[in-house]
Amino acid sequence: MEIFKPSCFRLLLLLLLLLLLASILISSVLAIDPYSQALLSFKSDIIIDDSSSLSDWIVPSNSNPSQEIIACSWSGVKCDQNSTTIIGLDLSMKSLGGEISGDQFQLLTSLLDLNLSYNYFSDKFPTGIFNLTNLETLDVSRNNFSGPFPSGISNLHHLVVFDAFSNSFSGPLPAEISQIETLQVLNLAGSYFSGPIPSEFGDFQSLEFIHLAGNYLTGEIPPEMGNLKSLTHMEIGYNSYQGGIPVELGNMSQLQYLDIAGANLSGPIPTQLSNLTQLESLFLFRNQLTGLIPWGFSNITTLTSLDLSDNQLTGPIPKSFSELKNLRLLSLMYNNLNGTVPNGIAMLPQLETLLIWDNFFSGSLPSTLGSYSDLKWVDVSTNNFIGVIPPGICSRGVLFKLILFSNIFLDSLSPSLSNCSSLVRLRLEDNAFSGDIPLKFSNLPDISYVDLSRNAFSGGIPLDISQASNLQYFNVSDNPQLGGIVPQGIWSLPLLQNFSASSCNLTGFLPPFQSCKDLSVIELSSNHLSGNISASVSNCEFLEKMDLSRNSFTGHLPEVLTNLSSLAILDLSHNNFTGSIPSNFANSSALLLLNLSFNNLSGPIPPEKKFSLMGSSAFVGNPELCGPPLENPCSKRPNEIELGIRKTQKFAWVLIVCSVVVVCITVSVVGVLYFRKGSQGNWRMITFSGLPRFTAEDVLKSFYSAEAMETIPPLSASVWKAVLPTGITVSVKKIEVDAKNMKAVVEFVTLLGNMRHKNLVRLLGFCYNKNLAYVLYDNLPNGNLAAKIRMKSDWVAKYRVVIGIARGLCFLHHDFYPVIPHGDLRASNVVFDENMEPQLAEFGFKFLPNWGNRPFLAPDSSIDTGEYDTAIKEEIQMDIYNFGELILEVLTNGRLKNAGGSVHANPMVTLLREICHENDIGPSDPIREDIKVVVEVALLCTRSRPVTRPSMEDVLKLLSGLKTQTMAKGTI
Which alpha helices (H) appear in 574-650, and where do they start and end? Predict the structure, then answer.
């Protein structure tokens, strides 16, 4: 018998081992059912899985003798009771992303529900899904699928719900979807679909819910939509249709919710809408609707919310509205309505919100308003109402906003307001109220905003105002008979930011500033206050404006004011201050406007450049004051004689230099003459505070001098730098204006020139002729945000940029009269001063060339109850949107630019994680909560519906309450 050689034995052993491994591999493969294999293939195609949410999608090592589908135990997978068929796949909010074909789903023919919502899936819609012909629910909302919607969806014969909200689809709406007879819910809102609504959309057999809002749809609303007899919910607004509301919509007998707001609709409101007797909510605001409010709306007794605001409606409120017993919201603001408010409105038992501001209503408010319903918000401002505030307006104890300004309300306030403990906001300014202010602030724990200005109150400011612990804004200015004193403890209110009591006949001394940590504005001009300004004012470290002009204050100018690093405006004019001007005032980098005129100050004005830029008007009326910029020179003192001799020795050199200067001037004049040859009309010059009074010729020479052009070249065709005769470097913007509009433009620029805030670039002057203008403003040394945004900086620095921009915008939107939108808010228009404080540049410039064609000066400066031209409202909302985009750009070092439309497609938690990672903020870092708030503000500001965005006043409140604020203030 032949014995095997060792090599043959080893070969046989290796062969047996390979057979064993192969059998194991085959059995393992056989253990994976095809459905699970398809899902694993889908998983391998996914590019993004930030949270490893599919980590349990693995094949177990043990065998699968029962032949059950392994995937039935995986997260998001739903099977039948026997685990033999996959009937549901829910991958929502899994932080998944990338491009998918949908081919992996072809085996899942029994799938009933597929949910891919709240992820990052992008590119074209996966047409493989259309092979899942048993689908009943398909949700792909809040992703970033793009491009035209593909054909084939009509294959889903059993589909009941299709939700594709908030994607990036473009092109026409898919008309073929109307062929699905079972479809009940259709949501295609929040994309970029364009063109008209297909008339085929009137063919749906079972549709109950349709949402097409927030696209780019145009054309007329098809009258065929009225055929949708089973529809209960229709949202098709925030598009740009042509024409009006089809009368056929009145045939949708089951409709409960109708929203066609912000859709450019015109013409009258069809009376046929009165046939919608099941309707609960009707939103037609922000259109161009005209004519009367249909009287027949009283037939819709189910109505709870009616918003027809921001249109061009005329006529009265129908008296028949007294039949709307379920009405909670009635918003008719910003129309051309007139007449009186029907008494029946006050009798509506469910009414909570009444917004009818900026119309032409007259007469008295119903005396029983608030007595029969839980009234929470009343705004009737900017009308012609007379009479008194209804005594029971807060009888139910839930009223939190009462806005009555700019009417003709008379007599004293109802004492019942003192018991309205729910009040948060009270605006009664610009009326004819008289008598004592009956407010008992100890009974108003939540009050935050009170404006009683421009009335005829008397009896003084209530002394218990110091108990209003949540008060942030208080204005009682222009009540000449008010009298009384500034209450003790007023500065200790923990949240107080603005205290205004100018022209109120106040007497006495200023209370000590024991605690005023958030105080930013003090306005007490034109009173009879006396005494010294306490050194304790240094506790108001964030004070930005202090106006104590036209009083009887005495003593020396408090040098501690120079320590207030945020103080931008200080007006102490028309008082009895004595002594010299502290030179330290010149060290205040924030100080923009200083007025010390008409006091008893003496001595030389400190020679620092900042004082000379203030102009002589800041110092006149002080007979003992001398030196530039006053024309009154200071007499030479003995120690100045030697200096005078040295100056004489330099005189010869001056003569030599002058001869050179003459040559330069000759060249400049030739340039100016050449320049003026092509212009029309004489040049004029307007200078604002901070710029010496140059002539137009001085400025024009500077533009065309060889020295200025060589050392500081033009930046662009319309903006450049220039060196003025005294060596001041300014930025210059060239604006071409239609001659007929120039007068209005001059008025507008003068308005901007008087605007002063530490987060706004100063306008210095305006040089113009018949059709050409040059605006001069501060040239700041540290560049703009666009140039620095990719430079990595710490969280505190980023917060400082964000809060600075917010303060500048808030001033434009709320604190300046009239309201001025920025109009072009972007990173290149945010510049930095010498302390890296952000300032907004070119605010309002967008409106300059055509200002005369559309003068949208606003009569008041409030966002939430303002009264604006439609164009101004849109610009303000766009400012807020752009601010939200800027926040995202700053927080991500420029990565998320112009991301307002797409950022909502991602879960908030993912966005926050990315931003914290980019800013090196760990999971346990306490600053993480502050970052979360700032990100939430960005998301609020970039909401697709403008009316849902917060005002800049609300934004600033949210941003100002963060822990980071203290850290940021310490860096200023």
Answer: 609-614, 641-649
Whether the predicted pLDDT of 970 surpasses 60 = no
Backbone phi, psi, residue 273, to 5°: -65, -20
**What is the rounded CA–CA span in Å between residue 862 and residue 852?**
24
Of 739, 751, 737, nearest to 849 (Cα)?
737
**Sheet strands (E) in 405-544:** 408-411, 425-427, 432-436, 449-451, 456-458, 473-475, 498-500, 507-508, 521-523, 528-531
Q: How far is CA 335 from the centre of its chain?
A: 24
| Chain segment 497-533, per-residue pLDDT in tens | 999 999 999 999 999 998 888 898 999 999 999 999 9
Whether 91 contacts 56, CB under 8 Å? no
- In CATH, which superfamily holds the domain spanning 783-852+867-971? Transferase(Phosphotransferase) domain 1 (1.10.510.10)
CA dihedral for 483, 485, 491, 493, sign (positive or negative):
negative
User: Which tokens sit at 548?
Assistant: 């104590």
Question: CA 182, CA 134: separation in Å to the nearest integer?
Answer: 12
End-to-end Cα spacing for the chain? 101
Tokens of 130: 């259309």
Question: Cβ(840)–Cβ(759) under 8 Å?
Answer: yes
Element (H, E) at 394: none
Task: Provide the pLDDT for residue 533.
Answer: 94
List, in order, residues 6 or more apart from 812 with CB less than 8 Å away.
Answer: 760, 819, 820, 821, 822, 840, 843, 844, 879, 952
Q: Encode pLDDT of 724-744 as tens digits.
A: 766 677 888 888 877 777 877
Q: Cα–Cα distance between 902 and 166 in angstroms, integer?
A: 8
138: part of which helix (H) or strand (E)?
strand 137-139
Distance, CA of 661 to CA of 485 (rounded, Å)? 60
Residue 921 in tokens: 């903020």
258, β-bridge pairs: 234, 282
Domain spans in the chain, listed from the N-terminal domain onward = 682-701+717-779, 783-852+867-971
Architecture per CATH, 682-701+717-779: 2-Layer Sandwich (3.30)
Q: How confident is the model over 325-355, as pLDDT tens digits?
A: 999 999 999 899 999 999 999 999 999 999 9
Residue 812 DSSP code: I
Residues forming beta bridges with residue 765, ordered by sequence position:
687, 776
What is the average pLDDT across 224-241?
95
Per DSSP, helices labelled H in 32-117 are: 34-45
**Residues 6 or more apart from 302 whose CB is under 8 A from it?**
256, 277, 278, 279, 280, 326
Q: Print the SS3 string covering 546-560.
A: EECCCCEECCECCHH
Q: Mark whether 954 is an active-site residue.
A: no
Annotated active-site residue in 824, 860, 879, 930: 824
pLDDT band at 755 (very low <50, low <70, confident <90, very high): confident
State the pTM of this model.
Answer: 0.67
HSE-up of residue 483 (Cα within 13 Å, Cβ side): 6
Residues 6+ apart with CB under 8 A from 382: 357, 358, 359, 405, 406, 407, 859, 860, 867
717 has pLDDT over 50: no
In three-state secondary structure terms, 926 is coil
Query: Cα angle at 450 between 446 and 451, to 5 degrees?
Result: 170
Strand arrangement of the beta sheet that strand 528-531 belongs to: 507-508, 528-531, 552-553
pLDDT single digits (tens) 433-470 = 999 999 999 999 999 999 999 999 999 999 999 999 99
Please name the residue that has the structure tokens 């007499």: 635
User: How many beta carbons lie within 10 A of that of residue 589, not counting itself?
Assistant: 16
CA distance 556 to 599: 11
Considering the chain, what percentage of its residues have pLDDT values greater than 70?
84
Q: Which amino acid is at 939?
A: L
